[in-house]
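# nightly structure sweep
# worker-07 picked up a monomer target from the shared queue
# config: single-sequence mode, recycle default, output format = structure tokens
# input follows
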Amino acid sequence: MHLFYQPDSKIFELDEEEARHSSKVLRLGSGDIIYVTNGKGTLQKCVLNVQGRKAGYEVLESQQIERRPFAVNMVIAPTRKAERNEWMVEKMTELGVERIDFVITEHTNTDTINRVVNLTRLNRIAAAAMKQSQQHYLPIITVGNKYEAFVRDVKDSVKLIAYVPDHNRVEHVFSKVKKGQGTTLLIGPEGDFSEKEVSLAFDHGFSTVSLGPTRLRTETAAVAGCHAINLAQNIL
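# output follows
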């Protein structure tokens, strides 16, 4: 199934990049069947109409795909390298994630935040990953929220923070997931969460979880946590 992204359901034409991909990469032409999603659950079966560099389409069928009965929401302190933030957005989108919120913590390098977290580029990467993995909902991505304010406002019933105090045994995130219930997982920066931040999370109902016996980079921890939550929901 050739899936394309057009956020405006009232426009029956692929954007320039999508049109070029359809003709130059996929070798599609007029009369071929494609599928178009708006990233909000709408899936349209369409017939392609190519005129020069433009690729319009006529909608044959349309349906609304229901959301999953659970949500996976990842809250992450961004790394200091843009490519690592982009990689984790791509992989978490492929695995299945409803929200990705990049937050500013005490150990976040705020001087480089605008350079390493480009929201426009991250949304473009997420859209490509959504199409590649044959999904129909684009994750919501936010940048620049203050950790303290964000933690106070989390509404999910399962609230977890990836933090293992020295010499303490902490359950793996897999064991904390509850079937059909939304989960928010906090992933700290390279210098980890401060004691104040951990205490604040506890005060607002978060539980500590482990992501395994080894120390992981921020981007690896985010992908591992996202995968564990999705896997737990699918086998519980």
